[in-house]
Amino acid sequence: MKILFLMIVKKNSLRLKRKNLQNFFGESLFMYNLKKICKIKGSHHFCIDSDCLSILRSAKRYSCLTNVRDISLRGHEVPSIPIFKSVLKKSANSYDYLFNVQANSPNVHLKTLKNIIRILKIQKPKELTTKYSNGKRNGSVWCFDTNHIFKIKDFYNTQPDYFEIDNSVDIHTRYEFEKAKVIEKLKFF
Q: How does pLDDT run across 113-168, given as a tens digit for each residue?
């Protein structure tokens, strides 16, 4: 099974300025998650999609594929699925799954990512996403069968056929950033 791990990383954000470049334990927030997913073994590729050339240069240091976001897909109101489709269309390889890990969810465990790979192999869902223990979707991880994703017309109301529990902090504000740091520090002890 071939998986394209994708992280979409904007340079700017509305609520927490330059959040993906904020220092998170000595490195930028997006690099913190990128290093984690690069530990996953197998016939997978890792790709960073961004509107920022310095972010893409940083990703290349980890042998990541890079994709300069299309101008038509830049902005704060653009849903993720058209970006996912754009990256897949430009890809020279064919993949069975697109596996998106949010750059702003640094508390997602490597163990959770590996478990999701097992689910993809065994259950073969068309769409999988993460949700909190309380049932609310968080989207720290969002996976699609690559044939299925091109059939999706309503980008805002997808119907995942599999959910995995993940209580990662989805960072949009300074408060959430600090909360994620506290949670991550607890992992070290």
A: 999 999 999 999 999 999 999 999 988 999 999 999 999 999 999 999 999 999 99
Which residue spans within the chain are E strands per DSSP? 3-9, 23-24, 27-28, 44-50, 65-68, 97-101, 127-131, 137-145, 162-165
Sheet holding 65-68, edge to edge: 65-68, 44-50, 3-9, 97-101, 137-145, 127-131, 162-165
pTM, to two decimals: 0.94
Task: Give the mean model confidence (pLDDT) for residues 9-35.
Answer: 91
Distance (Å, rounded) from C-alpha 126 to C-alpha 163? Answer: 11
Structure confidence at residue 12 (pLDDT): 84
CA dist 159 → 16, 67, 95, 144, 188 (Å): 29, 27, 21, 11, 36
Q: How far is CA 8 from CA 132, 139, 161, 187, 189, in A?
A: 21, 13, 23, 25, 30
What CATH class does 3-188 carry? alpha beta
Residue 60 gets which letter from DSSP? H
- CA-wise closest residue to 106 among 175, 12, 35: 35
Residue 121 tokens, joined? 């192999």
Percent of the chain, pLDDT > 90?
81
Q: Locate the domains of the chain by residue range.
A: 3-188
